[in-house]
Amino acid sequence: MNYLIERAGNFYFNRRIPEQYRPHDPRDVIRFSLKTKDYKTACRRALAENDRLEAYWRTLVLSGQQQAEKEYLAFSERAKSLGFTYYPTDTLVALEVSALFKRLFHIEKENFNEKHTEALLGKARQPDTQLDQVLQRYFDLSRPAVLNKSPNQVRKWENPRKKAMANFIKCIGNKAVSELTREDTLKFRDWWVDRIKNEKLVIASANKDLIHIKTMVTAIADNLKIDLDTAHLFKKLIIVGDDSERRLPLETDYIINTLLNPINLKGLNEQARWALHAFAETGAGLNELTGLLPEDIILNADIPHIHIRPRKGRSLKTKFRNRVIPLVGYALDAFKACPNGFTNYHDRPDSLSTIISKYLRDKDLLPSPQHTIYSLRHSFQDRLLAVNTPDRIQADLMGHKFNRPQYGDGAMLAHKLEWMQKIKIKG
To answer: Which of 121, 97, 95, 96 is nearest to 108 (CA)?
Structure first.
């Protein structure tokens, strides 16, 4: 393993200071005993020590950046209060001579006041940040956006942005945000075009990366007051075209006779099996189903139903996802069997999705690669359309935005049930 050496039967942690951290840590090499002769124990301790060091180095860098930013902003405000625009020294020298003399005359007028002199002659350099530092900084700035999300929701929010930045750096290399050029962003777009063509990837994946990079870079440039024309940088980068791979709906007969056939699902654990039944007959997402608490499952009522709603520590995708769904057919059976919800997968939709998807693929229970477990939600909507369900009811059941003026809190439960009875797949 990396960072591990053995001497006289004892294991030591050994790592050279990475190049990017050397300005902040004067040491050349870090080496110390892990106090064990057991290889597995040494590996475990080395990993823990390495994580601790990485966190320490990031803190050093961030502290230095924060101090530099604080100083820069202070000088900027001071220059502004004196009627001048702040320019760092390397930018200041490019000003016209008359503009420079104006600053010097003011300094002389103020009897060479030290603070005024520093502000007008650009003592502090404009703060910047490297691309590999953008993520953490952006996550810090975005704390309000994830304030009420569960740990799993935070992870799902962060991961696409981590992936986008990793791809961006892989394509153009690590560089300062201020040094980004139009050529860099075009190169990234072309890199994705080649991957779509050669690796059969979907356009949506590319566009998500492009949007995330634009959002993060723009936020950091604004926060640090970096002189960067982000509008030009990311102009018209979105890739236009139809994705060939779309999630296809499943036919109702196929759902009944194949996908939910008890014989075909015998090898799937009980809660996953019931969750699959609920997914097929509610139109709710797996993240919504796994987020249900016992109080959200109302079985002892004239119309049994589930209430999908936000709570402390867990938000919904949009405000429109807050809704009540009547229980019919397979879904009613599922929640009677699991009245407290799918407790083995509470707030773990990815785990549930992985288990079900793998089982369905292994058993060859999906008709094509374009069909996934999420095809069931598409099928639910298709069934609504097939019976001419009013737009308002469709929106209320699916958790979609309704584009007309709304009155009240949505369609009445009995009215929803009327249409749910028309599309249920279990008689």
So the answer is: 121
Look up residue 17 and give its two tokens.
């200071």
The CA-based dihedral angle spanning residues 202, 203, 204, 206, taken in that order and rounded to the nearest 10 degrees:
100
Tell me the pTM.
0.54
**Tens digit of pLDDT for each residue in 70-111?**
677 777 788 888 888 877 776 777 778 888 888 888 888 878
Question: How high is the mean pLDDT of the chain?
Answer: 84
Mean pLDDT across 170-179: 89
Could you tell me if 226 and 72 are in contact, meaning their C-beta atoms sit under 8 angstroms apart?
no
Measured at the CA of 172, the angle between CA 167 and CA 176, to 5 degrees, comes to: 105
pLDDT tier at 244, thresholds 50, 70, 90: very low
Confidence at residue 242, expressed as pLDDT on a 0 to 100 scale = 60
Q: How many CB atoms lie within 10 A of CB 205?
A: 18
How far apart CA 67 and CA 226 sit, in angstroms, is 16
Q: Return d(Cα 26, Cα 19) in angstroms, integer.
A: 11
**Cα–Cα distances in Å, from 134 out to 30, 62, 127, 131, 164?**
27, 11, 13, 5, 12
Could you identify the residue written with the tokens 């929106």? 395
Q: How far apart are CA 1 and CA 183, in angstroms?
A: 39
Alpha-helical runs (H) found in 128-181: 131-141, 151-172
Task: Residue 41: count other Cβ atoms within 10 Å of its Cβ.
Answer: 13
What number is the average pLDDT over the span 302-326?
Answer: 83
